[in-house]
Amino acid sequence: MNIKFGLKKATIVLTAALLSMNMSAKAGAVYDYIKANNELMIATDANWAPFSYIDDDGVMQGFDVEVGREIAKRMGVEARFITPDWDVITAGNWNMRWDVSVGSMTPTASRSEVLNFPATYYYTPAAFAVHTDSPITTLAGLNGKNVCTTAASTWEMYLQGNLDMLNAPAF
């Protein structure tokens, strides 16, 4: 299969907000609480390999896990991972059960009603693939065709024309 269309490349952006997390004057009470406990409690869904998963030895692994570990390292604290269900993470109202969620989450207007998105560190571009001998050569060629995506995902919202993504990058 060849990727026929989509965005040019995935872009990973570690923003100044992540890098400045070690400035207690700007981070306030949450930062002070994390430093006092010497621990950053990071929520991530453990069922989202290769982004976050538990390996055969019971250790958290994946891209988001490495991002979480790096944030904790730059803050000078230990990373501790907890694995609530995705629906619990995205519902907001964490009530100090964890400090931050690192989960390659698409920042949407509806999610921003219950969550803060201080930094975007990763963008996943949409891409469509067809078999090499397919007559479909443009995005418009998919009109009226059956397309596969993950249920209840931002890509499903995109295909339905309902994606309310905040601060989408221009590629």
From TrEMBL:
<dbReference type="Pfam" id="PF00497">
    <property type="entry name" value="SBP_bac_3"/>
</dbReference>
<dbReference type="InterPro" id="IPR018313">
    <property type="entry name" value="SBP_3_CS"/>
</dbReference>
<dbReference type="InterPro" id="IPR001638">
    <property type="entry name" value="Solute-binding_3/MltF_N"/>
</dbReference>
<protein>
    <recommendedName>
        <fullName>Solute-binding protein family 3/N-terminal domain-containing protein</fullName>
    </recommendedName>
</protein>
<dbReference type="GO" id="GO:0030313">
    <property type="term" value="C:cell envelope"/>
</dbReference>
<feature type="domain" description="Solute-binding protein family 3/N-terminal">
    <location>
        <begin position="40"/>
        <end position="136"/>
    </location>
</feature>
<keyword id="KW-0732">Signal</keyword>
